[in-house]
Amino acid sequence: MTARPFVFGCVAWLVMLGCSSATQQPASVDTRNDACAHCRMTVSDVRFAGQIAAKGEEPRFFDDIGCLRDYLSRHALGGDAVAYVADHRTKAWVPRDKAVYVRNDRVSTPMGSHIIAFADPASRDADPDGSGTPLAFDEVFGKKGGGLIK
Fold first, then answer.
1. Rounded to whole angstroms, how far apart are CA atoms 106 and 132?
2. When you count CB atoms within 10 A of the terminal residue's CB, does the N or C end of the chain come out lower?
3. What is the pTM of this model?
4. What is the pLDDT of residues 75-115, one digit of tens each?
5. E-strand spans in the chain?
6. Whole-number Å distance between alpha carbons of 52 and 33
7. Model confidence at 150, in pLDDT bands (50, 70, 90)?
């Protein structure tokens, strides 16, 4: 009989813990209507896109990883916000700090950064456009999350 309140309390604590540590999830892009938060061009091709998701805010989309990089060089990422980039091959959203980056000058990105992202090396290797120059996270976003490569 005395174990029930304890079990109920543990379950309630676990539910609250799970809710409070939930990562902001990426949203789907409407390629006909969503505009880049940096350059205002339509985000017409998800393969090159990025986004910032934050609790209680509308997602901010970017048509080019270079636009996400430039935006973050001037705007701080909020405490619970998460920046995502799209896997060029699968179009799945990947947290930007987990992605693998390539600069491929043969790939025309919307704003000319030529930077594309992948979920992992296997996805990069399976994509014909993944054969460019590998870039480390700091080479794309800088040590403070901004950008270095133009």
1. 8
2. N
3. 0.82
4. 988 889 999 999 999 999 999 999 999 999 999 999 999 99
5. 50-53, 60-62, 82-86, 93-95, 100-103, 115-118, 133-135
6. 17
7. very low
Residue 44 near residue 33, CB atoms below 8 Å: no
Closest CA to 127 of 98, 96, 92: 92
The three-state secondary structure class of 122 is helix
Cβ 116 vs Cβ 104: under 8 Å? yes
Q: Both tokens of residue 100?
A: 């693998």
Q: What amino acid is encoded at 113 in this protein?
A: S
Give the span between the Cα atoms of 82 and 53, in whole angstroms.
5
Q: Which residue is listed with tokens 């000058």?
A: 105
Q: Where are the alpha helices (DSSP H) in the chain?
A: 3-20, 65-74, 121-126, 137-141
Signed CA dihedral, 45, 96, 149, 76: sign only: positive
Tens digits of residue pLDDT in 1-45: 566 665 555 455 544 444 444 678 999 999 999 999 999 999 999
Alpha-carbon distance 144 to 137, whole Å?
10
